[in-house]
């Protein structure tokens, strides 16, 4: 029949016949329904697999771009670009820990999250306090972070950016439900990659500062002079002006 031919071509949108009699025709109709249900389930699994591979590809590409970042601003741009594609239904914000003053500062956001982008004390976030994602299980009763808008606190997820056992930043997500369990794993992988990238940039800045300034006096050293001279010479050549 036409129904069997369409099912054989994986057209599972077709409506199967419904017969209630207990005979060969009824058995055949039930077998066709089971075949269609199994086909729909298999098709859904294939779609989930394809979506999973697509997200893994995005995570791999994001990690590669983070490895090429030279500044913290580069890291922020990579996060803004890839985060909404990795989790297109989950708004979020990226915070970085400042030491002076001691606060979490919002440096990026995507997909229009609710609430202000004002800074807050690190202790206002339970993920920062615990050094682990919070809440640990989505959809179960738990204390909410104090920095979140009250209307979205119940469907939030905060993931700390950890480097050498210390939190140096935070990914704060909204509209995360229990059905987003697979997405949560990807969000935590994204946080791991961003935390490593931010730690590398901080280490790079610290090493550069040590190279340019004397560790005892705090004064600029010969290396700083060489760097400044090279920069000024390049500027003079570009603008056709005297170096003096």
UniProtKB/TrEMBL annotation:
Residues 1-44 form the HAMP domain. Gene3D superfamilies: 3.30.450.40, HAMP domain in histidine kinase. One of its GO terms (biological process) is signal transduction. One of its GO terms (cellular component) is membrane. InterPro entries: GAF-like_dom_sf, HAMP_dom. This is HAMP domain-containing protein. It comes from Klebsiella variicola.
């Amino acid at each position: 029949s036409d129904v069997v031919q369409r099912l054989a071509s994986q057209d599972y949108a077709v409506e199967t016949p419904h017969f209630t009699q207990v005979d060969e025709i009824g058995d055949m109709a039930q077998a066709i329904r089971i075949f269609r249900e199994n086909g729909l389930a298999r098709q859904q699994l294939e779609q989930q697999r394809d979506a999973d591979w697509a997200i893994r590809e995005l995570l791999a590409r994001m990690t590669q771009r983070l490895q090429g970042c030279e500044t913290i601003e580069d890291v922020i741009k990579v996060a803004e670009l890839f985060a909404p594609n990795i989790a297109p239904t989950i708004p979020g914000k990226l915070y970085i820990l400042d030491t002076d003053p001691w606060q979490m500062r919002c440096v990026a956001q995507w997909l229009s999250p609710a609430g202000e982008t004002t800074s807050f004390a690190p202790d206002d976030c339970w993920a920062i306090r615990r050094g682990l994602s919070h809440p640990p299980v989505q959809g179960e009763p738990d204390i909410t972070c104090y920095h979140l808008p009250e209307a979205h606190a119940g469907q939030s997820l905060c993931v700390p950016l950890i480097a050498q056992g210390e939190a140096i930043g935070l990914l704060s997500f909204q509209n995360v439900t229990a059905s987003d369990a697979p997405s949560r794993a990807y969000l935590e992988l994204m946080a791991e990659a961003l935390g490593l990238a931010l730690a590398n940039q901080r280490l790079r800045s610290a090493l550069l500062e040590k190279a340019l300034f004397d560790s005892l006096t705090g004064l600029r050293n010969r290396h700083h002079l060489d760097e400044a001279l090279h920069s000024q010479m390049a500027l003079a050549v570009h603008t056709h002006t005297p170096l003096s």
